[in-house]
Design brief:
Radius of gyration: 21 Å
Distance between the termini: 61 Å
Largest sheet: none
Oligomer: single chain
Structural class: mainly alpha
Length: 133
Amino acid sequence: MSTAATQRRTGRWIDDWRPEDETFWAETGQKVARRNLAVSIFAEHLGFSVWLIWSVSSAYLLASGFEFTPQELFFLIALPNLVGSLLRVPYTLAVPIFGGRNWTIASALLLLIPSGLFVVAVQNQATPTGSSA
């Protein structure tokens, strides 16, 4: 790694990782790995929860007074799958740029945007649905 890249890094980057070295693992590696695992589990749980809540909530919109055609409802339920599958490529490419832990936290926080917009939209029955009714 170049000196310029090393000097530019701030925060808690992992520049030395030797998990097969028993001394390194006992002194440093295990603690870092456990912390990263905990953050990753929480972020993945949050991601799948948002994905599932969106699909389940979409199915209950009809009972809440929204008027959807079956095609519109299917689209709303399929949308998280489509977005999630399309975002896998940039998600994968972002890890080497930002770092795995940093990107995991940032991408989990980005889930607040669609979640917040969904909450705002379903609280207002005047939200346009694209329905011709």
